[in-house]
Amino acid sequence: MRSDTPKGKDPDSHSPTLREYHRLLWSKVLPNGARFDLSANRPGAYLYHSSDLGIFFLTSDAAIRTFRSVRRAASVIEQIPEGEREAFSRQGYTIGGMMLFPGNRIEGMQTINQRRGTHPKISDRLDLTLECIRRHYLGEHSPLGETLSRYGDFFALFGDFAGYVDYFLLHDLVTDDFQNVRFLTAFADFTTPAIPQTLEEYRSHRRLSLEFVAARNGRIAAQTH
Question: What InterPro entries does this protein's entry cite (predicted)?
Fold first, then answer.
């Protein structure tokens, strides 16, 4: 995704290849049988959908957190050879490490991408975001609860948590019965740090993250054939 991105720019917003991958992959039939086709032709919008289902503006976000630029993780990251850091980042920017979320601001509040990146209990991690989404479908409280509720019409498209997971091919981050999230570090109801605290914890987080990306890339490949 980085090869067609201007130097110094973010592939999430500046890679034409990534946007086209997203458009093709996630334009498909919803659990209710309706088609959810995405367009890249609306000026100022990353991806756009308009139908009887509603109007939706979607943007890309990197789902895999390397923590390379996080000051609070510096003492751990500096122990990792640069080659390993770069390999982790490169693999994370394959399509299996990317997500779409609603990108329009509502009432001037942060979007999902913005809030999950700035909330200290989430720190941009997909597994923790997914736990918040699971709780949203159950009507339970979470650190992203208020933000997710503003985009309730989007999440309603998928019916329930299992429908959401199935649509975006996130099966490898949840248990087989869709009842629980498979966390990338120890988790205790959002009381444990979102940022890995030790080298051992970071390496485990990285290994599980890469396993998820590889598995999701496999699911994406299977969907497209």
Answer: DUF6994
Cα 142 from Cα 134, distance rounded (Å): 9
Distances (CA, A) of 30 to 5, 68, 81, 136, 139: 31, 36, 43, 19, 21
The DSSP bridge pattern shows strands 98-102 and 54-62 to be: antiparallel
Give me the residue label for tokens 């999902």.
112
Determine the residue type at 145. Answer: G
Neighbouring CB atoms inside 10 A of 185's CB total 18
C-alpha angle 79/204/101, rounded to 5°?
105
105 backbone dihedrals φ, ψ, rounded to 5°:
-80, 140
Residue found under tokens 């993250």: 209
CA atoms within 13 A on the CB side of 196: 24
**pLDDT tens profile 27-57:** 999 999 999 999 999 999 999 999 999 999 9
pLDDT tens digits for range 62-92:
999 999 989 999 999 999 999 999 999 999 9
Candidates 206, 224, 216; CA nearest to 66 is 206
Report the run of H or E that residue 26 belongs to, with start and end.
Answer: helix 16-26
> What is the separation, in whole angstroms, between the first and last Cα of the chain?
21
Give the position of tokens 């988790």.
Answer: 187
For 67, the token pair is 């923590």
User: Quick count: other Cβ atoms within 10 Å of Cβ 149?
Assistant: 11
**Phi, psi of 183, deg, nearest 5:** -80, 150
